[in-house]
Amino acid sequence: MIVLKNSKELALMKQAGKITAEALWAGVRACKPGTTTWEINRVVHETITSRGAIPSFLGLYGFPAAACISVNEELIHGIPDKKHLIKEGDIVSIDVGACIGGYHGDSAYTVGVGEIAPETKQLLEVTQECLNRGIAAALKGNRLGDIGSAVQTYAESYGYGVVREYVDPEVPNYGHPGRGVRLMPGMTIAIEPMINLKGEGVYTLDNDWTVVTESGSPSAHFEHTIAITDNGPVILTKL
Ligand code: MG
User: Fold this and answer.
1) Residue 130 Cα, ligand 1 centroid: separation in angstroms?
2) pLDDT means over runs of 10, the chain (239 residues)
3) Model pTM score
4) How many other C-beta atoms are found inside a 10 Å radius of the C-beta of residue 67?
5) From the CA of 108, how far away is ligand 1's center (Å)?
6) Ion ligand 1, residues whose Cβ is below 5 A away
7) N or C, fewer C-beta in 10 Å, the chain?
8) Which residues contact 11 (CB under 8 A, 6 or more apart)?
9) Integer Rg of the chain from CA
């Protein structure tokens, strides 16, 4: 069930979303060759707490950091590591959640570090566009299947693998138009396409957290928290 929020609650969601975006972009800017994934996490953590918010993911089910940082074939739930150095050509997915006043923002972005392979660059562009198309379908009166279908159709037109697992269970990245829960003003949802260059298969590493592609190919992840309103979708996790 998706709970409807009133205007006061939406204002708090917007505040949480803005802090989330600021922390995410601080992390994106820190993605440079020679930086560790732990350092990127440190920057994200510091940005969240400096604004009086709490990192949503830290301690959630025992997750040990403020940000999930997933590199190349890692899809989600990468654990920041003091020994993991970012290098030129990597793609780095940063997933951030910030909580203030009991409300959470959740947003993710995948950044290419320096020169990346052309096929990987296209994967990032297409996954970003999947998110844009998913958001554009988040109109009052539409259904969740319209969002999933918009994401899936565009990704598959490039032959990419749409990951079936791990998304916000209420908002799959696949589906049929006109099916699923009807979207109503006051709903807030996270739309988060996770798209693999090759194949949709994924599995979890021995650390019980990090999800990687079965094919070993790169994977991209973009996410915004949005509100359904009478005037169309509003992105809450915006700077
Ligand atoms: Mg997220």
Assistant:
1) 16
2) 88 97 98 98 98 97 97 97 98 98 97 98 98 98 97 98 83 92 95 97 95 97 97 96
3) 0.96
4) 31
5) 6
6) 95, 106, 108, 223
7) N
8) none
9) 17
